[in-house]
Amino acid sequence: MIRRLPRRRGYALVLVVVFSVLFFTLIGVAWRQMSSVVRIFTVRTNQLLRDRGATQALADALHALDVGPPPGNPDVYPCGNTVQVPPLTGLKFQSTGANSPCYYTVSFTRVPNEETGGNRVYQVTVEQCASPTAPALDPAAFAANGP
């Protein structure tokens, strides 16, 4: 008499292993996507923290230039601007030194008339410095020259 081997049934362990591998692969892809999002958000937040003072100094300079030309109408007019950087709101962390003043040198450089068609055009540059070295930015002095 020939003995037959019983038919093997059930591949439950194989299915569990296959689905576990697929599940962990899906988790790995999701983890990569989330880490990329967190990295991009961190970079953007750091750029925002870095540029806030310079952006405020540039806004103050453009406001002064909107009131009138620099006093005396020189070709280059350097002045200083102290910006108090307020802390960010809506974030779960506070940046270090958020309330410390930042010092910037704002330079107004007159662009030659032949390039601008006779209009008074100024190039405004903002550079961070360690301490206030130039005279303070005073929009009232710009207003005295008229628009």
Brief descriptors of the model:
45% helix; alpha+beta; 3 strands; rod-shaped; single chain; 147 residues; 3-stranded antiparallel sheet
What does this molecule look like?
This protein is of the alpha+beta class. The protein has a domain at 51-144. It is 45% helix and 18% strand. The chain has three helices and three strands, in the order αββαβα. The chain has helices spanning 12-67, 113-116, 139-144; strands at residues 76-84, 101-110, 122-129. It has a three-stranded antiparallel beta sheet with strand order 1-2-3, with helices on one face.
**What does the radius of gyration come to?**
32 Å
SS field, number of helical segments: 3
- Number of E-type strands: 3
What is the mean predicted local confidence, pLDDT? 80
* Main sheet summary: 3 strands, antiparallel
Query: Span from first to last CA?
Result: 115 Å
Helix content: 40-55%
Work out the strand percent.
Answer: 15-25%
Secondary-structure-derived class: alpha+beta
Instruction: Give the SSE string.
Output: HEEHEH
Low-pLDDT stretches are: none
What is the 3D form?
rod-shaped
Placed side by side, the strands forming the largest sheet appear as 1-2-3
As an assembly, this protein is single chain
